[in-house]
Each structure stands twice: as C-alpha cells, then as structure tokens.
Amino acid sequence: MTAILIDGKAFAASIREKVAAHVARLKADHDITPGLAVVLVGEDPASQVYVRNKGKQTVEVGMASFEHRLDADTSEADLLALVDRLNNDPSVHGILVQLPLPDHLDSDLVINSIDPAKDVDGFHISNVGLLGTGQKSMVPCTPLGCLMMLRDHYGSLSGLNAVVIGRSNIVGKPMAQLLLGDSATVTIAHSRTKDLPDVVRGADIVVAAVGRPEMVPGDWIKPGATVIDVGINRVPNGEKTKLVGDVDFASAVEVAGAITPVPGGVGPMTIACLLANTVTAACRANGVDEPEGLTA
Ligand code: NDP
Predict the structure, then answer these.
(1) How close is the Cα of 191 to the center of ligand 1, in Å?
(2) In the β-sheet with 258-259, what is the strand arrangement from edge to edge?
(3) Do 111 and 163 reside in the same domain of the chain?
(4) In terms of domains, do 117 and 145 share one?
C-alpha cells in the first residue's frame, strides 16, 4: 500500500481563504477588523522567522498585525505591563507571546496574564481547563490543525483508536483532549510507555509529537492507519541539513492509509489555525457568529 499524502500546505491555504472571507464579512457588515498582537522578547533566530511569517500571513488575510519586539533583558514588570495594555486595547483580539521566553521571565506567569478571550495560542490555564472539560475555549493551534486534517480525512472520528505519542502541554495533551472530544478512544504514550511498538500497532490514528527524528518506523503502523507527524527535526544531510519528522516516512508511507509529510504537513497548519483563532476571538468579543469549520 502507498498512503494518501495529506497536503498540509494546500489545507492551510484553504483555511486562510476561509479566514480571509470571514474577515472581509466582518469588515463589511460590522466594521470590525480582527487584530493580532505578537510579542517577541529577545533575538532567537527561529522565533524571529516565526514572528515574521505570522505578521505577513495576518496582513494577507486582511487582519491588523501588531508586532512588539522587546529587548532580551526586558523586565517581567515591563512585559506584564505590555500584555495588560494589549488586554485592554479593543483593536487587539488575539495576543501571542512567542515562546520560549528568556530564562529570567516566568512563562507561566506571563501566559496566564493574557486575557483568556484573547489567548489565541490556547495556553492560558483557563483555556486548558475549558478544553479539558469539553467547553468552548481557545484551542492550541498545532493540535487544532491536526484535528482539522483528521476530520477532513475521516468525517467522524467516533470510535477510532488513536495513539498520541508525546504528552507536552502544547501538543500531546491538548491533542488527546481534542480526539476524546470527537469520541475517539485515546491512548497517550510517552517516554515511560512500555511496549510502544505494540501500543502504536493498535492505532487507527497515530499522532507523533516527540521531537526524535524518524523514531516511528513503518512496522509499528497498522496497515491503513492515518499518521499525523508533528515532529520537526533538523538532521545532517551531506554538508547541509534537512527537516524530518518523528516518523520514518519512507517505511511508513508503504503501510499507512494516509500520512502527513514533513515538511508540508502539520507545519503550515499551525499559523493558519492561529489566524482562525484570531478571527474566532474577534467574533466572540463582538457577539458575532463564528465562522464554521475553524474551531474544535
Ligand atoms: P516536548 O519535548 O515538550 O515533548 C516531547 C514528548 O515526547 C514528551 O512527552 C516525551 O515524554 C515524549 N518522548 C520523548 N522521547 C520519547 C520516546 N522515546 N518514546 C515515547 N515518547 C517519547 O515536545 P513538543 O510536544 O513541544 O514537540 C514535539 C515535536 O513536535 C517536536 O519535534 C517539535 O519541534 C514539534 N512541533 C511542531 C509544531 C508544528 O507546528 N508542526 C509545533 C510544536 C511542536 P516524557 O513526557 O515522558 O518526557
């Protein structure tokens, strides 16, 4: 068998189109321009690239983009004061503080100082609790993107066996909650899981979010299963480097029914879902109908 490739690039483009259409309607019918504020502290090169891409795509879908670049030695008090200003700024509907923050700043404190209604990353403890109890929340972007791809592939996830490898707060745990919310039977695996290959072999859906290059080989995959590879790992490739996922694509593609490639799978969905969350937040803040298909 050769798996169907789930094209995250094309899917993300379709999400951005939906977001842009809804933004246009919000402007025309309600005079609302959704706004996303991104806060970057310090000069981490990877974070700078992410922030630039987020700003560019925000503007492309017709939203307002506010970038706040702060020095690496910014004090916690100054950062909290900025978040407070953004919380109280009606032109800002989404706030994202780019992680990781420099060591002297308490990430949990900063994230939990964001107004939960503007927490478009879905990391605020209130949103974590709302998601865990099946209530309307802001959902973390990467797992939301994975859920959208799975729903698109299957229609209903009800009763399917899903294994999520990884239990981080930003991917593994919210992914498991979302799958449970869609009535999948969910197992969360991690570094202490016994007989991981056997656990994975029982899965109709495998979500790999580990951060270990090509850790999951094809012979762990149940024939016909759907494989969502969240991993982004840079490995040597001759004199250069290349990106690979947590799944050994070459062997997995021969066994799986459908699979996301790396790059071009989950990666592009993350920013698309950030834009989706921002338009959702703008609708909720103004009591306007939310776009369909862009939330969990
Ligand atoms: P973390 O390092 O926070 O979590 C990794 C998880 O993998 C942990 O729960 C850990 O278990 C588990 N793990 C580690 N080794 C093993 C093993 N040998 N067997 C089973 N489980 C193991 O990573 P993140 O969740 O933040 O990210 C995971 C991957 O996804 C990374 O490659 C990251 O770059 C990528 N990523 C991609 C995004 C995208 O946009 N596509 C967005 C976010 C992340 P334990 O808890 O026991 O230590």
Answers:
(1) 10
(2) 4-5, 258-259, 226-229, 205-208, 161-165, 185-189
(3) no
(4) no
**CA 229 to ligand 1 center in whole angstroms:** 11
Residues marked as catalytic: 54, 98, 121
Whether residue 63 lies inside any domain: the answer is yes
- Domain range for 197: 141-268
CATH number, domain of 112, equals 3.40.50.10860
In a domain, 130, yes or no: no
Q: Which of 144, 163, 168, 215 to mutate to test the pocket of ligand 1 (most atoms within 8 A of CB)?
A: 168
Compute how many other C-beta atoms are within 10 angstroms of the C-beta atom of residue 156.
10
- Contact between 237 and 112 under an 8 Å Cβ cutoff? The reply is no
Output the pLDDT for position 27: 98
179-188 tens-digit pLDDT = 999 999 999 9
Q: What φ, ψ does residue 53 adopt, rounded to 5°? A: -65, -40
Pocket test for ligand 1, best of 6, 195, 210 (most atoms within 8 A of CB): 210
Q: Is residue 131 situated within a structural domain?
A: no
Kindly give the parts of the chain with pLDDT less than 70.
1
| pTM of the predicted model over 0.70 | yes
**Residue 210 alpha carbon to ligand 1 centre in Å:** 3
